[in-house]
Structure formats: structure tokens, C-alpha cells
């Protein structure tokens, strides 16, 4: 019987191990543990292959733990896919910029906010990151085309509503 990871000739398809390792990561980040035999059945490979895959992930620094026979394998505290840690000054700077935009000229706050935004941008997918960059460029064009934001508020408001509508639809 041929598995989904094998060709008709019986050889494993190129990239199938990488694909399996990535899928294994997604499975293990869930709240329920997975036993080796269940993983082997799911991926249509031997238990030994699953043991090797788990070891490869552990050797790569991914915190996988096994709770013995009762729970199975899991990622430790979902630590692989956590939100980036912001320093207090970075979070404070974002909050101040939101509530008091006139303070954006304070260099310490401006730099801290830039660092926070960079950390957040690195934490999102490339698709989201490129969408944000596109919106930012279009916003700059709108601001630079008129006499400033105040002279073109309707156009700016319409643009931001369309961007936010697209962003909420992509969730």
C-alpha cells in the first residue's frame, strides 16, 4: 500500500519530511497531546519516524515535552508562537502616541514606538506585513498630494475605512 508521501515507485517525495515536520508543529501546538502511535497513523509513517521527527524538532530548539502515557506530545506552553515581548517603554510609547499624538515629536517616545512597531511587524505573516506597508505608502501619497491631512479628511477617512474593511475581512 502506497502512502500519501510516496510516489508510485515507492520513493518518498522531495520535501515530504519538511512538510510533515511543519504539520507536526501545528498539531502539537494544540491543547491536546498526541501519542506517537496516533501521530504515526495520522502521517502514515512508522512510530520510529515520528520519534526521529520529534527529536529533530527538539534538536532545533523547539520545546516539545511528553507527559508520559496519559497525554502524549505537546509544545511547551505554545512558546513557539507567542506574541513578541515589548518593553514597558515601547508599550508606553505606543499608548502615548495613540492618546496624545502631539507627543510623537519626543525622540525617546518616537524611537521606542518605532522599535515596538518593528517587533510587531516581524511577528505577523508576510501577507499582513506587505498589506500594512502598502496601506502606509498609500497613506503617505494621500497626505503628500494635498495641503496636509486636514485639507483632505474625507479622502483620508474613506481610504482608512476601505483598508480597515479589507483588514477585518482577511482575518
Automatic annotation (TrEMBL):
Coiled coil: none annotated. Keywords: Ligase. Residues 20-74 form the Helix-turn-helix type domain. The keyword Ligase applies. SUPFAM superfamilies: Winged helix' DNA-binding domain. The keyword Ligase applies. Its EC number is 6.3.4.15. One of its GO terms (molecular function) is biotin--[biotin carboxyl-carrier protein] ligase activity. This is Bifunctional ligase/repressor BirA. The gene is birA_1.
